[in-house]
Amino acid sequence: MAWNWKKMSAAKKKLIRRGAVALVVYELLWTGSFEWVSRAKLEGSNLWVPAVLTTLPVVGLIWILARYLGEEADEFHRLLVVRCLLWGTAAVMTSVCCHGLLQLMGWKGNWSAGVELGLFLAAALVAKLTYKVANRVPADADGLLGSEGSR
Amino acid sequence: MSFFGTSTPASKRYQRRFLVTMSIYLVVLFAAILVVKHTHPHGWQLYTISVVPAVPLLAMLGALGVYLTEETDEYIRLITMRSLLVGTAVLLAVLVVDEVLRSISGAGALPPFTSWVTFFMAFGVAQAVQRMRNRVKDDA
């Protein structure tokens, strides 16, 4: 399965670039929030500030996906991304459902931090790879090479 | 005017599948709670029971995926895709806030099923807002 940058559509390249930036910002904000809280000894409602700040790149990631759906001319690739999004959401929902039910049944534990976002990304990636393999036809590994390939 | 605001053949099939899976989910959920209440399972049995109600939930999202494939009206599909994005964004935002609060202070654990309800509410509100914004006189 060739992962050829040159043959990708312009919209997909933008998606990957923007997505990478969003994930790096998320990591920085996550680490920064911990540092800030431990140094400034934040308490009470002040804790909401780092919590909401860390959320911004995650919402940004979804906005980036929305922009990609607007920019991508290839209907098949658009549908593929939506399917991956559905799988990611399904993984998160399953995790949340199990967690909620376990709590309701008296379980006192908690998932580790980052599990849900990790599950979302992992499920979306697995779905993407699976669909790619399932729909593979010769010379179509990374999109429509001739007509709408590298713009 | 249908329950979900659209009446294409694909959306009718989606509504049917959604209602069926929702009913199954509610039955399975209450059955799981009853089983736990009366048999007091521990360890892997408890984990297995907690996974079972997630199956109809997955089927619900599967129905949404099938609908997106079957729907021939490009505009309605776009509205559904956007709503799905909004629902996912709100769901992830709520979960990340909860995770950060839990990690840095040990507080902030959401009540069970908040995220699930949040997703479908955000999905529904996004659909309603888009429909209202795009309303034309003859469409009322």
Q: Mind explaining what this structure looks like?
A:
The complex is a heterodimer of chains A (151) and B (140). With 151 residues, chain A is mostly helical. Chain A contains four helices and no strands. The two termini of chain A are 21 Å apart. Helix content of chain B is 78%, strand content 0%. Chain B is flat and about 55 Å long. The termini of chain B are close together. The longest helix of chain B is centred in the middle third of the chain and has 32 residues, at 74-105. Classes of the chains: A mainly alpha (151), B mainly alpha (140). At the A-B interface, helix 1, helix 2, helix 3 and helix 4 of A face helix 1, helix 2, helix 3, helix 4 and helix 5 of B.
Mass-distribution shape of chain A? globular
Helicity range of the residues of chain A?
Answer: 55-70%
Structural class of chain B: mainly alpha
Could you tell me which chain pair has the largest interface and how many residues each side has? Answer: A-B, 50 and 48 residues
Structural class, from helix and strand content of chain A? mainly alpha
Number of strands of chain A: 0
From the alpha carbons, calculate the radius of gyration of chain B and give it in angstroms.
Answer: 18 Å
Largest sheet of chain A: none
Summarize the structure.
The complex is a heterodimer of chains A (151) and B (140). By secondary structure, chain A is mainly alpha-helical. Chain A has 4 helices and no strands.
Ordered list of secondary-structure elements with their pairings:
The complex is a heterodimer of chains A (151) and B (140).
Chain A: H1 10-40, H2 48-71, H3 75-104, H4 115-134
Chain B: H1 9-39, H2 43-51, H3 54-70, H4 74-105, H5 114-133
Helix pairs in contact in B: 1-3, 4-5
